[in-house]
Amino acid sequence: MRSKPMPKPPLYLPAAAVCLGMLPFSALQPKGIAEEKRETVLDRVVHIERRVIRDIPKIPRLCDAMDITKQRVDIGDCRLYTEQEGKGIAMVLLHGGPGGTHHCFHPAFSRAKDFAKVIYYDQRGCGLSDYMEGPYYTVDQAVDDLERLRKALGVDRWIVLGFSYGGLLAQCYAVRYPDPLAGLVLVGSSVAMPIELGRSRQQDFLSRDERRRIRAITKTPGLSMEQQVYNRHLNGDWKRQHYYKPSPEKSARIALYEWKHDTHFNALMSRHVRRVDLRGAFEGCPIPTLIVEGKWDLTWNTDKPGKLHKDHPGARLVLFEHSGHSVFDDEPERFFAELRAFARKVSKGPRPDLSAWKGHLRDWRKKRNESLTEMLRLVGWGRSGSEKIAKAYTEERLRDLSDPRALMRTGFALYDLKRYEEALAVFRKMHEQARGKSSRDMAVSLIWQGHMLDLLGRRTEAVTAYTKAADLNEHGDYRHDQYGLVYSPSGYAAKRTKAPFERLENRLP
After folding, report:
1. How far apart are CA 299 and CA 322, in angstroms?
2. Domain boundaries in the chain?
3. Per-residue pLDDT of the chain (509 residues; tens, 9 = 90+)
4. CA-CA distance, 317 to 279, in Å (whole number)?
5. What is the DSSP string of 136-153?
6. Rounded to an integer, what distance in angstroms lies between the CA atom of residue 464 and that of residue 470?
């Protein structure tokens, strides 16, 4: 719901141009091909398919042929598809996305069945699980679903392994439900905090011809998501996430089975992902934690592993030199040796004393809840979020805000509660903070000053604000989805000089 220029897609947006950004790709190759002969992303080999392939090879799911226990587990308001194999300490695998599936872990994680009871599952709204949205798809809901799954399966303690976006969920689970957590494993994990990271390297090994062909595929009418993924892969898009080039069969399985979710699931979940902020939560955490990173995981830049590790000061970081995003596929021998050693250590060791860390978490939550800045990170753009912000708002707290986006959200909250005078003051401060930095933010702040002035019956002042916004010549679509409002700033402001603004209600709960 954050207002932003439309051309900039949000993180994890499932548009064809970026939908693979968090896909849990793996690098399975046909048996018998020596590792040293396999093509890697570093070889920069260019292959272009001149035609679009609409008939994806009908490759069956790997789990269909596996000797594995399959069931749909009722967790209350929906059923989650699960698979289990092996014996030993329970280890649940959290797939990536938002919107991936458990299939990304096949067949690699069958190696772990010798030392762990491996639990695969599709998150709510994904893969073969129920698409039961409930009140809303949220990160909190996904975390609660995992805990309810644990109870339904009768598991006392388990290792939680999160891959990619699943790593973010795993961290959120650890903070909310630390007691059943025997160990935490983060594989190519997303960071669970709003920090600056170096630019993604996903385009670094794609040639100009490959990028051009991929763009053409994206614009080809009538292609399903599966067809988009498959054809992009064949034309070099595999290089964005893999170290080794996948076989055609593997590319077909990725397209058919590894990116399945409910309509709008990715977009809804991504909004909540952007609000997750666990900075400082893991200080003093006694739960054994293993961080696994591939040197050639181009999803991120080289600064990401260190920044993630810094937020988990007690964790062990292991870097794999010949791996991309899916380390367990690229270097399976070393990966599962590390995982075996970790599982054996936590299964034989005593339960950690969580009392001090729980105290830290209570203080951390209290400090976060008392901060208006932190609240703005956590609440959504709906009516309920506005009520929380407006309740916490004071003129003194306004002095602590300087980011134009935070000021805009605060202004919207006060507007939703019809506190127009206070909202006007917030939008005026937003204008001051944006001056000399962003003429677009200046225009938006002037437009909303005009809106407040119109609602206060001060039409002459409103027209002055709209005129200043129009004179900034800011074009391109801007949107406030919670109000169903899409506009080009200067053009919209010019129209408002002739017709006053009429109140729009927040459409989100």
Report:
1. 15
2. 69-200+264-357, 371-496
3. 334 333 333 333 232 223 333 333 333 333 443 445 899 999 999 999 999 999 999 999 999 999 999 999 999 999 999 999 999 999 999 999 999 999 999 999 999 999 999 999 999 999 999 999 988 899 999 999 999 999 999 999 999 999 999 999 999 999 999 999 999 999 999 999 888 889 999 999 999 999 999 999 999 999 999 999 999 999 999 999 999 999 989 999 999 999 999 998 998 898 888 878 899 999 999 999 999 999 999 999 999 999 999 999 999 999 999 999 999 999 999 999 999 999 999 999 889 999 999 999 999 988 776 677 777 877 888 999 999 999 888 888 888 788 888 899 999 999 999 999 999 999 999 999 998 888 999 999 999 999 999 999 999 999 999 999 999 999 888 889 999 999 999 999 999 999 999 999 999 98
4. 18
5. ---HHHHHHHHHHHHHHH
6. 10
Task: Determine the Cα–Cα distance for residues 9 and 213; give it in Å rounded to an integer.
Answer: 20
Q: Is residue 92 within 8 Å of residue 159, measured between CB atoms?
A: yes
DSSP annotation of 114: G
Helices and strands, counts by H and E, the chain: 18, 11
Closest C-alpha among 290, 299, 306 to residue 326? 299
Q: How far apart are CA 304 and CA 197, in angstroms?
A: 6
Write down the architecture of domain 371-496 according to CATH: Alpha Horseshoe (1.25)
| Residues 22/300, Cβ–Cβ less than 8 Å | no
Classified by CATH at the fold level, domain 69-200+264-357 comes out as Rossmann fold (3.40.50)
Same fold: 69-200+264-357 with 371-496: no
Q: What is the pTM of this model?
A: 0.74
Q: Assess contact for 112 and 118: CB atoms under 8 A.
A: yes
Distance (Å) of CA 61 to CA 52, 65, 101, 223, 233 = 23, 8, 12, 22, 18
Cβ-proximal residues to 315 (8 Å cutoff; 6+ apart), any chain = 184, 186, 282, 289, 290, 291, 309
In three-state secondary structure terms, 155 is: coil
3-state secondary structure 242-289: CCECCCHHHHHHHHHHCCCECCCHHHHHHHHHCCCCCCCCCCCCCCCE
